[in-house]
Structure formats: structure tokens, C-alpha cells
Amino acid sequence: MKFTIAREELLRSLQLVTGVVERRQTLPVLSNLLVEAKGSQMSLTGTDLEVELLVVVSDIAIEQEGSVTIPARKLADIWKSLPEGSMVSVTVNQEKATIVSGRSRFTLSTLPASDFPKVEGSTDDSAIELSSSNMQRLLQQVSFSMAQQDVRYFLNGMLLEITGSHTRAVATDGHRLAMCTIGGGIKDSERLHAIIPRKGVLEIGRLIDESEEPVGLSIGPNHLRVTRGPCTLTTKLVDGKFPEYEKVIPRDATRVITGDRETLRQGFTRASILSNEKYRGVRLLVEGENLTIQANNPEQEEAEEIVPVGYEGELMEIGFNVSYLLDILSVLRGESVQISVSDANSSAVVEGASDDDSIYVVMPMRL
Q: HSE (CB half, 13 Å, CA atoms) of 122?
């Protein structure tokens, strides 16, 4: 196999595909990228057996067709280190790949393409197309609430729910919940559920940029395939039952606190400096037009912030994990935010005045 290409034409594709490859692998071939050259196209594939990313690069000067696997990190690091605007030639011969650019020359060991595993998809998939901005919003608004390495493995991911009228993303770690709903679903469809694993969610996020190129989603019984331009990402789905999230959202939260999002965010940020590093708890005291944020730690250090808010009701005292509140305030976009509770022992519903597609639930803490 032999081809020549400009450094910039392959750089982003190489970085995207290499991101899927885990640094520590049980199989040596999983540390490699599958490189296939045919006609005037070349494809790069990376996988960790859970997530697979395929990127096709067109209009390449291919002198000799072929396929091989090349060490992913080393190839990406070499490519990135080459001078901007340089032309790069790659030649594969006798289990070695030689990369030449200007006066630079590198030789890497290869493994046969036949050893490379493929993540299998299915043919009877349900398909939907979303704009990049909608897909990006679904991920940004909820992905921070996914659990990490929870024994309840179905929480270590994001629920994608598609009906005939909407597409919804939900994530929870058992202490907080995030939900974002956009219009448009699969016509005449029953409710489809897919739990995308954490790594799959993160890789889809890397795949989507600011352009409005549409994103195609194809959902099968065990796999989700995401197609965008020359990129195709296939991820296995988590086999489990996601919690009945709609039952978690309080419907009787009558005590409503409204305030400026940025003012609240800054107040919580300052108070969090002296919160307990492990539990991250802050106490909120609200009465009239003042919200007092209090934090302390085992070293007997204390912080107090008073923030102007709108509130009608009796004096209320409630505790929360400040990190959860800050995560929510950082993804909401509007100027005003609303925190609704029914009493000091109930979960809070957090919403933005202009973010009517997103809703957040945070469980209280006993301080």
C-alpha cells in the first residue's frame, strides 16, 4: 500500500479516530488503526470493541491499494508533529509502514488487517435525522449527569428516547437528573429507548462541531450508529432498564426561588471554596428577597454569600451538593433561573426561564 496526502487533509480524521482507541488494550491489534486504501479513497477505523469510528477521506493520490493496521497513537503523534503544509507519503511493505515527509522518515511496525475486529450492526434499525445543533444540545444539556463507574451499570450512560413527536435525552447518577427534549421524532413510531454508554456519548460529542451538517441516527436492538458526513460511529448499547425518570420529577414544588443565573453561579462558586471537599454541601436559607448560601468544612472554616432573589413564602432552609447546582447553572443559557421545591426534604426542580426544553432535578442533602 502506498499513498501521498497533505498533512492537514488527514489530521482531524486521524485525531478523531485515535480518540476511540484505549491506551491500555488486552489485544495488541486494538492499539492500531485499520487503514484501507482503494480507488481514490482511504478509510481509517479505530475501535475498543464497544465503540467503533470509521472516517472516509476522499480524493487521495493512491499509488498502491491495500489494507493494514498501524499503531494509532504513534501515527497520530507523528502526523501532528510534522510541519504545517507538508506533504506526507505512507508506504507499507513487509510488515512495516514507512512515513516520509521532507527530511523526516519514520518506520512503524504493522499488524495484518485480517486481525482487526469489527463492531457488528444490524439491518432492521430505526432511523432519524437531527440537525447538529439539536444533537449537540441534547448532549450538552444532560451528559454531565451521567454516573461514573456505578455498579448500576445502566446509569453509566445516557438514555435516548424517541417517539412520534419528540427526541429526548435523560441522564442520572441517582442523586441528580437532567432531561432535554426537542421536537421531532420518528413518524408513527412507538417509544424507542436506547442507553448509550458513557464513552459513546463522549465520542459522539467529539464528532459534532458547530456546522449545520445533519446527524443521522440508526438505532438497532444492540447498537446505535451515528453518521455525519464522512464519519460513521457505531456504539454498543447498554443492556439494562433505565429508571422511570418521569416519576422522579416533582410535580408539587410550590415554593419557587427565582434569581439571576450568573449572580447565583458566582455566589455558589465563591461559597464552594470552603465547602467540605468530599461532600461539597452548602446550606441555603431563603427568606423574602435574600438567599443566604453557607458553607463550612472540617477545619472550622466558613463562607457566607447573600444573593438577591425573588421568593414568596416562609423561611426555608435546605442543603444541596454545590457541584450539582454549578453544573446546571453552567449549561443553562438564559439570564434568569428558577429553583422550585415543596419543602426542605424534597428534591428541587431547576429550570431556566428561556430553556424550556431542559429540566433538572437535584436531591437535597442533610447537613
A: 14
Greatest extent of the chain over all pairs of C-alpha atoms, in Å = 79
Q: What order of strands is seen across the sheet that includes strand 358-362?
A: 192-197, 157-162, 166-172, 176-183, 358-362, 348-352, 336-341, 255-260, 310-311
List, for residues 173-214, the tens digit of each pLDDT value: 999 999 999 988 887 777 899 999 999 999 999 999 777 889
Strand order, beta sheet including 96-101: 61-64, 2-6, 87-93, 96-101, 104-109
Number of CB atoms found within 10 A of residue 303's CB: 17
Question: Residue 291: which of 341, 356, 225, 229 has the closest Cα?
Answer: 341
Q: CA-CA-CA-CA torsion for 305, 142, 180, 216, nearest 10 degrees?
A: 150
State the chain's mean pLDDT as an integer: 94
More confident call, 186 vs 138: 138
Asked if 159 and 193 touch (Cβ cutoff 8 Å), the reply is yes
How much is the pTM? 0.92
